[in-house]
Amino acid sequence: MQIESILIKNFMMMSFDEWTVASREEIFKETAIILVNDSHGQVIGGITADNPEEILAVGVIPIDRLYEGEKDWEDYSMILATDEQERIIGCLKQEELAFALYRHFKEEACYFKSVLSSLPLEVSMIDESGKTCFLNDQVLKIHGIKREEVMDYDLKDLYHGCHLNTLLNEMDKKVVMKVTDDRKGAYIQTNVLQSDRLIGAIQLYWKAEEIEKIAMNLDRFKNLSTDFQAIVDASYDVIYVSDGTGMTLHASSACEDLWGYKSEELIGKSIYKLEEMGVFYPSVTRQVLEKKQKVQVFQTTKKGRRLVCIGTPIKDEKGNIIRVVNASRDITEENHLRMELEEMRLLTEGYKQQLSQLKGLEMESESFILKSERMEGVMTLARKVAEVDSTILIQGESGVGKEVIASYIHRKSERKDEPFIKVNCGAIPENLLESELFGYEKGAFTGASKTGKPGLFELANNGTIFLDEIGEIPLALQVKLLRVLQEMEFTRIGGTKPISVNVRIIAATNRNLQEEMKKGNFREDLYYRLNVVPLFIPPLRERKDDILALTLHFIQNFNEKFQTCKTFSPAVLDLFQTYAWAGNVRELQNMIERLIVTADAPIIDIEHLPDSLMDGKDLPAVHVTDIIPIKEAIHLVESQLLLLAKKKYGTTIKIAEVLEVNQSTVSRKLKKVSI
């Protein structure tokens, strides 16, 4: 409640003589309080309607001082509040003011207690006598203290080696920062002063693990910053970063060579001002901010250098530009640029030749064909986790090779000589899955074996069990699986005696288990038990570097299997690398086997591919791999185009439209090449 809201506005001032002769009843119909002044106009008292015969003592206090805890108003029955110009703006009784001040300071105390309780650390306070007077919610929760029991606790009992009460002897401000005697945490302590009077002391306490987390995060960000700076400074290009207003935030050290300014001379300056100074022109950052999209410009610097600059906007979730990142390269020396382009062309050509001859990379005598950095990272992690017994959750789309990775981890582990049991949880009916996994005792249900049956967990004892499609397990069975993970024991169906096992669990799924948890289809506690070491296998479309290596590997395998000697044309290999492969490696393998088995030609070309692989694809580019007469080359290209067009469109009318020739020309040429 604000004091302003209870100030009485309807008051009247009159002299004592006027009051004595006034019609009091009429006055109090319109006025709540009468202020009586003397012959000099000074207020000498106040009269209220409930006691019109008594003149009450009056005090005048500026309204902005009413909350300061001044004692002046305690001497008066009525208080006049004034504004900054000392004009009376209202009056109120002493009890009204006291009530308002009580409400104000109570709300203020609750506010500060709420602030202290919301802090993510333990806050404790003692009063001037050393008695515990406040513990925030964190302390109450961690130590199991009820709020009404706060004053019964000594902080020495809660915090090992706490000497907060020693600060009560300090009359000057003092701050103590120290690690606790048991080294389980650290605290900051300080005495609390009010108007040079000691009123208590306060302590903030952190647990050691929280401090370690903060320190580790600081180190991580420091290392990231150092790495970023090293990468940017090592770049041949100038890397230039500004905020969403065009203010320069970062410029790599190469800017001194191109613009003649050190990075520290540019940081903090607006790109509009730098453009006006002629440091560079035009400003790519300005154009990015104006067009709100990626921009490429040719730029002239103050030193006369010619640059090609690419500016890229970085946007927040609302689409607002928060950063602009520019990369500027010096193209003043055209010869130097042409040499770089020629080197790039030769390097690219070398990569193409290397890829065309690549038969696959076999890692550690295993059939892992890979070339991409992402899959090398997956295999590096797989080798690491094979050395320990941690539970692993392998995630990835169908056909990416989750079972292959699981088998590899088992063979490289210390359990390699023990069983490796594979279970496809999605292929076993729900009513049979429990008995398959955990087994059953004799007579457990109708049709049960008379001798009972051990489950797959028992068969995998001392080895590894691979639970593929773990997301298909019903909720009721997830509870039993969770117990195996926690206790390494279970009970057969119809049994009463728990069976202990020593087994490593590797699970796999193509589902998003976090989404399944939100839907209530998968237990959260089971997910975190399985996801100790997450291992994600990216889909084939996201690691195109592996497609060619896998293709050549499968071609060789199927040629050996079917006693053939078939190859694939460069156009087919190029198309393979642009196809999405929804079935991933499994789909690629099946496609190659199908083509080698069904195609009659020794070279498998575009016309041999199924329509599903060609859907949405443009006609392939012409590939020249050797020198031949031009007429022969033209004939080959025409034949290839006609074959593709005939296969894709069927009618001569549509073929003529696509190839942009007359229908008669198409008919003649089709007969010529016997199509």
Outline the structure in words.
With 675 residues, the protein is α/β, with parallel strands linked by helices. 40% of the residues lie in helices and 22% in strands. The protein is built from 25 helices and 29 strands. The chain has a 6-stranded antiparallel beta sheet with strand order 14-13-18-17-16-15. The termini are far apart. The relative contact order is 0.04. The model is unreliable at 350-366 (pLDDT under 50).
Show the helix and strand layout.
Elements lengths: L10 E5 H6 L2 H7 L2 E5 L5 E6 L2 E6 L1 E5 L15 E5 L5 E6 H25 L3 E6 L4 E4 L1 H7 L11 H4 L16 E5 L5 E10 L2 E11 H27 L3 E6 L4 E4 L3 H5 L3 H4 L4 H7 L2 E2 L2 H8 L3 E7 L4 E10 L5 E10 L3 H24 L15 H14 L5 E4 L6 H10 L8 E5 L5 H9 E2 L12 E2 L1 H4 L4 E5 L6 H13 L1 E2 L8 E2 L3 E6 L3 H7 L4 H7 L2 E4 L8 H18 L4 E2 L1 H9 L5 H15 L4 E2 L6 H4 L15 H20 L2 H8 L3 H10 L3
Parallel strand pairs: 1-2, 5-6, 19-26, 19-27, 20-23, 23-26, 28-29
Antiparallel strand pairs: 2-3, 3-4, 6-7, 8-9, 8-12, 10-11, 11-12, 13-14, 13-18, 15-16, 16-17, 17-18, 21-22, 24-25
Helix pairs in contact: 12-13, 16-18, 19-21, 23-24, 24-25
Features:
675 residues; alpha/beta; five-stranded antiparallel sheet; 25 helices; 40% helix
Number of strands: 29
Largest sheet: 6 strands, antiparallel
Q: Round the Cα radius of gyration to an integer and report it.
A: 42 Å
Amino-to-carboxy terminus distance: 95 Å
Shape: extended
Count, helices: 25
Question: In short, what is this structure?
Answer:
With 675 residues, the chain is an alpha/beta fold. The chain contains 25 helices and 29 strands. It starts with 10 loop residues before the first strand and ends with a helix.
